[in-house]
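Thread: quick sanity check before group meeting

JM: Hey all, I'm pulling together slides for Thursday and realized we never actually wrote out the predicted structure for the chain we discussed last week. Dropping the sequence here so it's in one place. If anyone has concerns about the input, flag it before I start.
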Amino acid sequence: MDKKIENIKRDINFVKNVYQKFILILPSFDITNKKILPYGLKPHTRSVSWLVEQVITQQTKFHSKELKLDDVTFDMPDTCLHDCEIKVGKKIYYINVKIHNVDKRENKNDIAAVEKLYMQYESNPSYSLIYACFGIKFKNINISFDKNYLSVFSPQFLPIYVNPRNDKIQAYYHHKAEYRTRKSFLKLLRVNSRSIILD
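JM (edit): ok, ran it. Output follows.
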């Protein structure tokens, strides 16, 4: 198998191992108090996703020594594909955090805008994104993390289906990886996208 593919697989395994330890110490938390939301929180993932992602990235930094990480940076611009950078030695892992409500059925989810992903991968040959999806549960105003739910994957190995309505890659968070080279990945994005305009 291609050496670069093996490197990505190794990176995925490393990140997965970090988050498997991390998920055991990740605390549950209240979104607000009962005076503000006396009838509880509607269990809608989209309404809390940004906040939960912040909890995950900031707690990763807070527990970085315990997780044997040299540094974690999470102050990313809104246009950035990744939510945080994990640094170990000279190596940087670019992480995009996703969440899934484990009490709901698993459906295909929008993973990334094709054009944005294509431009990043095309312009920066060393850039490699890793997605980490955590399972959450809602109970009234409390959010807790499911310690048995974690999916870590690379967009390069996703089954490629592009939603024609919004030009985003859609996939199940848990899926069978399709190992392909970066060149093949970029070609698939070009072929399946309406938004990528090449000179």
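AS: nice. DSSP finds four helices and nine strands in the chain. Strands lie at 29-30, 71-73, 84-88, 91-101, 109-113, 129-139, 142-153, 162-163, 168-171.
JM: adding both to the slides.
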